[in-house]
Amino acid sequence: MKYKRLLLKLSGESLMGDSEFGIYSNRLTQYAEEVKEVVNMGGQLAIVIGGGNIFRGFSRRIRENTINRIEGDYMGMLATVINGIAFQSYLEKLGICTHIQTAIRMDQIAEPFGKKKAIYHLEKGRVVIFVAGTGNPYFTTDTAAVLRAIEIKADVLLKGTRVDGIYTTDPEKNKYAKKLNNISFDMAYQMKIKVMDQTAFILGNENNLPIIIFNINKRGNLQKLISGEKIGTLVSKK
Ligand code: UDP
């Protein structure tokens, strides 16, 4: 196994499948099955979950200024809690012991975030889902993913997306777009890549955390990645 401790970032939008919002049950079942395979292989898996599938409708209100940015961001963070609870249910249905840790205290629902406790759970073969992002407005769950990955000393951050990796240009618009297998953080930053936010790349670079952008919707990709197969695009310090 190439990577032992992994941080998987799942965006809210990846949970909604082809629907316009909400949670698509088949998708969560598929992700839960893949997580189970990783755990059975001995992988220590923590997950940061996004909220875009629930939050998207509100973001327009923020742009229009009907909802203030800061309040809107808290709504976004709460959306990640809903997704986290949903995903926990799917994982536990498959017999995977799962703990939710939250950056905003809500004791009845989740443990408060604690790095030591999170590592303890992972070493026991439990999955940890980090919700509520960083707990601060003006951030994203991509940045939260990098932060948590550094805190729990993950070997790699896996960013699951709907595309196969980073391309030279938008593959949906240009048929000559080429997939890049490896790029440096500096390059990712210069290219203004949209698949992950820039703050996340900067934090990853400063702390030497490799990030792999890959297609989470292709069954088996997660397992292949932790076994060391070269899938997606690796962003690292060169
Ligand atoms: N958010 C925030 N601080 C954080 C993480 C998230 O304010 O540390 C808010 C922000 O409004 C964001 C929303 O929660 O747009 C949902 O998170 P994100 O957009 O990262 O979710 P994803 O795109 O991964 O579904």
Whole-angstrom Rg: 17 Å
The stretches of 5 or more residues where confidence is low (pLDDT under 50) are: none
Beta strand count: 11
Present as ligands are: uridine-5'-diphosphate
Number of domains: 1
Distance between the termini: 23 Å
CATH class: Alpha Beta
Topology order in helix (H) and strand (E) letters: EHHEHHEEHEHEEEEHHEHE
Annotated CATH architecture = 3-Layer(aba) Sandwich
Corresponding CATH superfamily: Acetylglutamate kinase-like
Question: What is the share of helical residues?
Answer: 40-55%
Number of H/I helices: 9
Largest sheet: 9 strands, mixed
Order of strands side by side in the largest beta sheet?
A: 4-3-5-2-1-6-10-11-9
The CATH topology annotation reads as: Carbamate kinase
How would you sum up the global shape?
A: globular
Round the mean pLDDT to the nearest integer and report it.
Answer: 93
Structural class by secondary-structure content = alpha/beta
> What is the percentage of strand-forming residues?
15-25%
